Amino acid sequence: MGNLKNVVLPLLLAFSLLHLPFAESVWFFNYHIHVRNDLPSRNSSPHQPNLLLHCKSKNKDIGDRPMTTGQDYTWDTKINFFRTTLFFCNARWVGHKSRIFDAFKAVRDEDRCSAYHSSCMWSVRADGIYFSYNNATWFNEYPW
């Protein structure tokens, strides 16, 4: 009887966790993070990068991405079981400003990013870093 408890109870617990409201997104949904460079291009050379973007999480370093105006950088992630998934970025506007921002934070973005193709969209602009949940309405969440 003791062995049966050791087998059945963990199975029941695992089965019940699968039916929690957030379980589907934790294990099955991919979230797409987009960061677009909408800064004004450099007068001297419009084809030279004017934004250096470095994004990473606790477990994954995406590295430096030099970006020219109009470029979009995208990556995917899933939310971990504890909903602590976090990607943060350092956006450096060459010759101007620098700002660290949370590009994906599970507890904040799980719902708001699922509204539009499971995408979190960011736009780096002259007055700050904007977020959109639908690619139409933009909010300046991180002013320079």
TrEMBL record:
<protein>
    <recommendedName>
        <fullName>S-protein homolog</fullName>
    </recommendedName>
</protein>
<feature type="signal peptide">
    <location>
        <begin position="1"/>
        <end position="25"/>
    </location>
</feature>
<dbReference type="Pfam" id="PF05938">
    <property type="entry name" value="Self-incomp_S1"/>
</dbReference>
<comment type="similarity">
    <text>Belongs to the plant self-incompatibility (S1) protein family.</text>
</comment>
<dbReference type="InterPro" id="IPR010264">
    <property type="entry name" value="Self-incomp_S1"/>
</dbReference>
<keyword id="KW-0964">Secreted</keyword>
<keyword id="KW-0732">Signal</keyword>
<keyword id="KW-0713">Self-incompatibility</keyword>
